[in-house]
Amino acid sequence: MVNARRVRVYLVPACLSPTLLVDGVAVVIDVLRATTTIVHALAAGCTAIRPMGDVEEARRTANGLPAGKVLLAGERGGLKLPDFDLGNSPVEYVPGRCKDTTLILTTSNGTHALLRAAAAARVLVGAFVNYSAVCEQLLTTERPIHLVCAGDEGEPCLEDTLLAGALVETLCAHREVVLNDAARLAWDSFENNRTMLRMAMEASSGGERLCALGYAADIDAAARVDVFNFVPELQREPLRLTIGPVGVRASYWPGPPCPR
Questions:
Q1: Helix (H) or strand (E) segment spanning residue 157
Q2: How many angstroms from the chain centroid is the CA of residue 205?
Q3: Quick one: which of 154, 64, 144, 162 has its CA closest to 104?
Q4: C-alpha distances out from residue 173 to 127, 153, 154, Å
Q5: Could you give the CA distance from residue 165 to residue 49 in angstroms, rounded to a whole number?
Q6: CA atoms of 253 and 226, how far apart (whole Å)
Q7: Residue 244, Cβ neighbours under 10 Å: how many?
Q8: Which of 48, 193, 195, 251 has the largest count of CB atoms under 10 Å?
Q9: What is the C-alpha end-to-end distance of the chain, expressed in Å?
Q10: Alpha carbon distance 170, 122 (integer Å)
């Protein structure tokens, strides 16, 4: 397997050393909800998304940008932060609110994972809603592949692991790959839940929390597959996410039909 691509999954960001990423392409995954929200926000017209690890840093950055052209968004504990314009619910991000704005975003897990993965040569954002677009990028790269799950407060979470496992399955079906053990665990998790994706996400600890907070609609949004045909990509100086590669010649979804 001389030409095999190395595929590593990290079930939580703490499992990875940024130095491992330098020559690779990283896909950051936070299905419930940051990466799903990022895709929705860019599709709704945000020109860029600035990921922030700290609430006060997010406020300072937003205050330094032109009024009327910036949205301050984020959550802690699943709830929108006080005095922020938006929370972390993908259904909030609509063209009437987002068009031609810069989004400053800080979340409990997803934005931290993005910042930790920033050392990679390329950093992409993955969700079920842009699944095939992400697959297309991974199937054409010659770089090592790193699938970085945001997890939940430092612990692995089911929904991120499921997406990582689905990506592993597609990569294995189309290329020769070398997997780490976490990639095999994620693949097994997807195999065991592929016929009940929405149900599995609702039963996860993150899904239960969102339902308790009244955000069940966010699970519906996050469980949709191949709604969008682009991949957000991290740009530098300053760190920001913009619409990256657009394409998709085929559906790569390996599971049963899912709502779109």
A1: none
A2: 18
A3: 64
A4: 19, 32, 31
A5: 27
A6: 8
A7: 18
A8: 193
A9: 36
A10: 20
State how far the Cα of 253 lies from the Cα of 166, in Å rounded to an integer: 8
pLDDT in tens, 124-152: 999 999 999 999 999 999 999 999 999 99
**Is 250 within 8 Å of 229 (Cβ atoms)?**
no
Q: What are the respective helix, strand and coil percentages of the chain, to the nearest 5?
A: 45, 20, 35
- This prediction's pTM: 0.97
The Cα-based distances of 89 to 33, 170, 245 in angstroms read 7, 28, 24
Buried b (16+ CB within 10 A) or exposed e, 212-235: eeebeebbebbbbbbbbebbbbbe
For residue 116, give both structure tokens: 């930790």
Give me the half-sphere count of Cα atoms (radius 13 Å) on the Cβ side of residue 10.
25
All structural domains of the chain, each given as residue ranges with its CATH number in brackets, are 5-235 (3.90.1560.10)
| Mean pLDDT of successive 10-residue stretches along the chain, which has 260 residues | 84 93 97 98 98 97 94 97 97 97 98 97 98 97 97 97 98 96 98 96 97 98 97 97 89 83
φ/ψ region of 163 (left if φ > 0, alpha if ψ in -120 to 50, else beta) reads alpha
